[in-house]
Structure to design on (171 residues):
């Protein structure tokens, strides 16, 4: 099992080509992060067809996202900018990614598991306290930016949902 976890961590690895045919080996390879599993000996036409299928799935590009406005806060995922009343708010990368994910689902409960998988990695083995610390830092940076604004700023509120996750409450 250990060799699959190491192999899955290699960037760009999408599949597994092996002589191992047991169900447990296939399941372990896919669970470790492989997108596909091909057993040797294999047909070149089957390999090429699988590659074309993977390329089709990756080629579908998402349309450009419009900036999200939440009260006086504007979150632009494409430009990676967070602006409060015409002043940019400096956020760390993970803080920004958390904010974008919550902003794309305003008023919706977003689970801790979803946040960890989307912002960090679905294979993250560290503590989920990382999420709590990053969320506290994000809240502090937004609050500090609002306090520094000459006029009262309307900010969305990030609500903790005990035992589940977080929700971004539009102002």
């Amino acid at each position: 099992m250990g060799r699959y976890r190491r192999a899955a961590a290699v960037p760009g690895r999408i599949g597994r080509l092996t002589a191992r045919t047991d169900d447990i080996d296939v399941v372990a390879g896919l669970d470790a992060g492989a997108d596909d599993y091909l057993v040797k000996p294999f047909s070149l036409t089957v390999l090429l067809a699988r590659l074309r299928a993977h390329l089709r799935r990756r080629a579908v590009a998402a349309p450009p996202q419009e900036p999200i406005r939440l009260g006086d806060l504007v979150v632009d995922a494409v430009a990676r900018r967070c602006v409060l009343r015409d002043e940019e708010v400096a956020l760390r990368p993970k803080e920004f990614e958390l904010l974008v994910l919550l902003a794309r689902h305003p008023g919706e409960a977003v689970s801790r598991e979803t946040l960890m998988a989307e912002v960090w990695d679905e294979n993250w083995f560290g503590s989920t306290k990382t999420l709590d610390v990053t969320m506290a830092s994000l809240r502090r940076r937004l609050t500090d930016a609002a306090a520094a604004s000459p006029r009262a700023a309307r900010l969305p509120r990030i609500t903790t949902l005990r035992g589940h996750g977080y929700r971004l409450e539009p102002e």
